[in-house]
């Protein structure tokens, strides 16, 4: 045979940091999003689906002097004659598009505008294990209301949503804090240097990990890390650090106690007092709605990184225990977060438009439900009608059509029918519950052979047919009783 | 007041050719996709969701010497040190990613692999009225089966899908043709010049518009367009053109007649005979499954543009009449198409992998259902609890929580409560069925005022309250009977 010229073949690979989702994974996410949309809808929120692509200008994360503005986003320039086309980018979250949508359509939208959105977002970041560059978010926001009742509503809805998708009450908690209280604390400390402020905020964010003494060290001279590295401190005196520690440790046994501690921590700061008042209002509203601190709690240790929050911030944590990489128990952690951001729409319109919202990390929540065994998606494959005689495809097609018309998931084997073993292997790989066989004898007798693959698998597992002797693994049925007998067997299997 | 420095504000605009979808539009599409997924699943297909982003190499539409490979797609280059990163692109359909997925995961996937996928695709094309650069597709494909039973199954599934989403039997038809028959016709004609072949194919594609005599002209010397422009012909003699015309006009009153005509048209071409045989098999299989020519019909005028089809091709047309731009009646037209493509996976693996599939144009199908009045999405807004006293938000919150817990869509008005008129205007804009009012008097009496906004709208329309006198537009209920009375009124409104 003549040597063929080798041609360069393309690699069959997802780009780095992207992945494919198969079968049950897709169905589980779709179903979870459907349930969440139901709760959001019941709360009066309306669906919004904007395009994946926005102008870089509208996303607004980029400096005008950067040549290729794809820091953190996937961006490209539109072709035009003068090489002067718009820069476009894939959205990196669902909040920036919402600000653009509200600014663009504000004359047609009701105010306040309650909207929810669910879909993929893209981040041009270095991928890592379990860290993908495309992932789902599921957001709900209220635009155009400065009332903390809007924030309280979002928190209540978040609690209802977690329960609706299958997280038991007691296995989650929604924690609330308020940026204004934090600003009050910084004011009381007399910090004027912005860098120092930022360092204090970063330290507060570590409270969860390093605890009170760790925070004291980090606010002061510094601290020896668990890894042995020395972390420089912010350089405050003990007296200066005191309000921060008081703030972080202000959570008491009940809401009234926590609020009293916060009032003490913010001293005579006006903005701090406003923040405490807002927390008090939210607590009152939530209590009136029946949401006690077993579900939604004021917790001053919640900070949330994003710079754009201006008032209440919230975070939903799943509190049940899992094991970490090293087998140590820890709580599952955060699955959703959000807060009030009053300046995002202003970028477009010049007018301040108050807004507040939440974003659920869909994949984290799915992982949690998976761990709790709460994803009961049906992974049963189709009934497989095997092909004993390739010239009789029409007969097999008739069988499968009858089953499908009766609502039963079914298919004819469409591979090469030569090896019957391969057909059964295929049925096994598809997780099929039943194989149907009709050779020449059965055709003549007007019957079908029915093979119970679930029972077959059980027998294979225990290596003993005796305990299943009452139930035959394969049996014959009249062709005319196809649908009723298959239905009955499927019911039996599902018991 | 001092003049403020004017800062450049970003434009709140979707990029050209992209749009936002609101409320019911999103819900209707979601629901339609859910129904379609149900049918596909019943047929044994498994969901697949690949990322929006693929390597340009895997999409494989581009010449290696093009500097920026974004002809028709949105593409960009990954950053790396040597300015030598991979080119990435947004997928332009769901078939190219399927070929990549099957090649990448073929050792873990069952063969044949039946999969469905639904989601947006992107085209970097000039947008026009109703033509967007992001739109939904909904595909089902069987990879790894060369059996035309797979093609027949796809056609049956397409018919079932159209009926499941609300297209009546009789309002659609799935037409089937076979590329091999067409190739047989070209063979019989003795055409060797590829350009001329392509011109003949293009002409065949116009049969729908210009009819038999038009095709004869276009295959010959040319034709005067309706616009007055002269269209050059392919330059065939009348005798040479005859097989094409015979092929195009071979559709008879029944399948047997059509197939006989086709056999005559392809003469002694082997590939043509193979094509007719495949059509015969499909017709037999479909008949056995109960799909008669009222639903699925062999129609030689179906060509389908895409070059990659190698065997059966199909198209679903909605046959009910609509009015075109100029008010003339025409049939709604194509909503889905597909066919067999046996070479797509080979690009990656070198091995031929037969495949066949269908793609539904989701937005076209939604538009059709909209025209037929088959989109009965509930567009009713939430019950709105108005705010008479802003210090009593907790009371209003309690009312709304009770309603939500009873499964009733409800919300508190969260805008500025100063003007009661604005609150009712908001309720109107939200299409709310009911407003609930509790001022000081009602609070004291332990009651609520209930305003029937649906009735109110009806009275406003007819400008006469008399005919509705039995049903009051506003009435008082005991606070304790909130849920049952609101439920009863909603039921009444829905009758």
Report on this model:
- The structure is a homodimer of 495-residue chains.
- By secondary structure, chain A is an alpha+beta fold.
- The first copy, chain A, folds into two domains: 310 residues, Bira Bifunctional Protein, Domain 2 (BirA Bifunctional Protein, domain 2); 111 residues, Anticodon-binding domain (Rossmann fold, 3-Layer(aba) Sandwich).
- Helices cover 39% and strands 21% of the residues of chain A.
- The first copy, chain A, has 17 helices and 19 strands.
- In chain A, helix 4 packs across helix 10 and helix 5 runs antiparallel to helix 10.
- The first copy, chain A, is elongated and about 95 Å long.
- About 1% of the residues of chain A have low confidence.
- At the A-B interface, strand 1, helix 1, strand 2, strand 3 and helix 3 of A face strand 1, helix 1, strand 2, strand 3 and helix 3 of B.
Short description:
With 495 residues, chain A is of the alpha+beta class.
Which helices and strands, and how do they pair?
The structure is a homodimer of 495-residue chains.
Chain A: E1 21-22, H1 24-42, E2 46-49, E3 53-55, H2 56-59, E4 75-77, E5 87-90, H3 95-105, E6 113-122, E7 134-143, H4 148-165, E8 172-178, H5 179-189, H6 194-205, H7 207-219, E9 222-224, E10 230-232, H8 238-248, H9 255-265, H10 270-288, E11 296-298, E12 312-323, E13 329-340, H11 346-349, E14 355-361, H12 362-371, E15 383-385, H13 393-405, E16 410-412, H14 420-429, E17 434-437, H15 440-445, E18 447-452, H16 453-462, E19 474-478, H17 482-493
Parallel strand pairs in A: 2-6, 8-11, 15-16, 15-17
Antiparallel strand pairs in A: 3-5, 4-5, 6-7, 7-14, 8-12, 9-10, 12-13, 13-14, 17-18, 18-19
């Amino acid at each position: 045979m003549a040597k063929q010229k080798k041609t360069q073949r393309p690699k069959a690979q997802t780009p780095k940091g992207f992945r494919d989702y198969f079968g049950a994974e897709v169905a589980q996410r779709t179903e979870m999003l459907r349930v969440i949309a139901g709760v959001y809808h019941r709360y009066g929120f309306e669906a919004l689906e904007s395009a994946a692509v926005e102008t870089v200008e509208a996303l607004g994360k980029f400096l005008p002097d950067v040549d290729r503005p794809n820091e953190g986003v996937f961006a490209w320039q539109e072709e035009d004659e003068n090489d002067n086309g718009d820069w476009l980018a894939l959205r990196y979250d669902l909040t920036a598009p919402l600000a653009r949508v509200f600014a663009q359509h504000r004359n047609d939208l009701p105010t306040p505008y309650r909207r929810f959105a669910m879909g993929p977002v893209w981040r041009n970041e270095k991928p890592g294990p379990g860290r993908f560059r495309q992932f789902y978010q599921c957001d709900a926001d209220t635009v155009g209301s400065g009332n903390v009742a809007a924030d309280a509503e979002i928190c209540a809805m978040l609690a209802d949503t977690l329960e609706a998708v299958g997280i038991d009450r007691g296995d989650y908690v929604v924690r609330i804090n308020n940026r204004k209280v934090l600003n009050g604390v910084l004011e009381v400390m007399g910090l004027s240097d912005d860098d120092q402020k930022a360092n204090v905020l970063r330290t507060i964010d570590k409270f969860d990990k390093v605890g009170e003494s760790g925070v004291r060290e980090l606010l002061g001279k510094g601290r020896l890390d668990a890894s042995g590295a020395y972390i420089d401190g912010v350089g405050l005196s003990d007296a200066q650090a005191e309000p921060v520690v008081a703030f972080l440790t202000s959570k008491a046994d009940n809401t009234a106690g926590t609020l009293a501690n916060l009032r003490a921590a913010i001293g005579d700061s006006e903005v701090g007092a406003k923040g405490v008042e807002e927390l008090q209002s939210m607590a009152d509203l939530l209590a009136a709605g029946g949401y006690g601190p077993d579900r939604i709690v004021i917790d001053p240790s919640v900070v949330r990184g994003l710079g754009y929050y201006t008032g209440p911030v919230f975070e939903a944590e799943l509190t049940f225990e899992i094991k970490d990489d090293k087998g140590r128990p820890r709580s599952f952690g955060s699955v959703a977060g959000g807060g009030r951001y009053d300046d995002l729409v202003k970028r477009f319109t010049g007018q301040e438009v108050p807004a507040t919202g939440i974003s659920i990390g869909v994949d984290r929540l799915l992982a949690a439900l998976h761990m709790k065994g709460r994803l009961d998606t049906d992974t049963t494959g189709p009934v497989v009608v095997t092909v004993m005689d390739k010239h009789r495809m029409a007969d097999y097609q008739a069988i499968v059509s009858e089953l499908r018309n009766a609502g039963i998931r079914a298919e004819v084997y469409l591979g090469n029918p030569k090896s019957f073993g391969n057909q059964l292997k295929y049925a096994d790989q598809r997780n099929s519950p039943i194989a149907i066989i009709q050779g020449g004898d059965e055709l003549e007798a007007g019957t079908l052979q029915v093979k119970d693959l679930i029972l077959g698998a059980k027998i294979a597992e225990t290596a003993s047919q005796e305990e299943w002797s009452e139930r035959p693994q394969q049996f014959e049925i009249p062709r005319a009783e196809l649908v009723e007998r298959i239905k009955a067997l499927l019911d039996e299997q599902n018991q």
